[in-house]
Recover the amino acids of this structure.
């Protein structure tokens, strides 16, 4: 399977998914036209094409029809995406190929694709979502409880992104920055930022770039 770039006579560009016989995958093609009619950006359509191509390859490897998708099969899509080579099951430990954030984006695209076809009645209703009340955590927004909260449809199969520690500079790197300063003011500001754990406000960053 492959994702083919297509250019229209009006010079606009889109992408379509081709199967192993180089024939466009019709359900994905219909969804791509839907996204294009909604004026979604070419990057959004391109990303959706690549993610749905992965879903189709997963269904092909599992010998399944795309209309048979359910939450169990969608959950099985997660370890398939994590393997370095989805066609090979290795007993040795390997680093994951994709992060949770990347996998969740693929799950969101697949969920949107199936939601679209369920609304068209192309496929029967699939229990891929659940109704939940917003703000179920400890945090409550201002005036919480004044208005009645309506349930929201959320995806059942979803992943939380990994928490990554912020990147920091070593003492040697900070010292190189201090030694490179030609003004005492700049050296003082950098030393304050490093010693006190401060950061430059975004407005100040924009002012510095403008200067």
């Amino acid at each position: 399977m492959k994702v083919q770039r297509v250019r229209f006579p009006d010079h606009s560009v889109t992408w379509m998914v081709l199967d192993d016989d180089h024939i466009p995958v019709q359900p994905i093609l219909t969804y791509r036209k839907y996204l294009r009619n909604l004026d979604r950006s070419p990057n959004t359509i391109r990303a959706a094409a690549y993610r749905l191509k992965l879903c189709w390859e997963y269904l092909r490897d599992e010998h399944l029809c795309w209309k048979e998708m359910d939450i169990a099969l969608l959950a099985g899509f997660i370890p398939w995406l994590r393997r370095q080579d989805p066609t090979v099951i290795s007993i040795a430990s390997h680093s994951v190929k994709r992060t949770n954030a990347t996998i969740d984006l693929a799950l969101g695209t697949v969920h949107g694709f199936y939601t679209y076809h369920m609304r068209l009645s192309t496929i029967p209703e699939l229990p891929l979502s659940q109704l939940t009340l917003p703000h179920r955590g400890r945090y409550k927004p201002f005036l919480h409880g004044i208005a009645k909260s309506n349930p929201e449809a959320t995806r059942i199969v979803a992943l939380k992104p990994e928490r990554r520690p912020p990147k920091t500079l070593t003492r040697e790197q900070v010292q190189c920055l201090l030694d490179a300063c030609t003004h005492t003011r700049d050296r003082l500001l950098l030393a304050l930022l490093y010693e006190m754990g401060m950061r430059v406000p975004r407005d100040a960053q924009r002012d510095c770039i403008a200067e």
In short: The two ends are 50 Å apart (CA to CA). Helices lie at 26-37, 42-61, 71-82, 100-119, 171-180, 184-196, 202-210. The chain has seven helices and four strands. The mean pLDDT is 82.
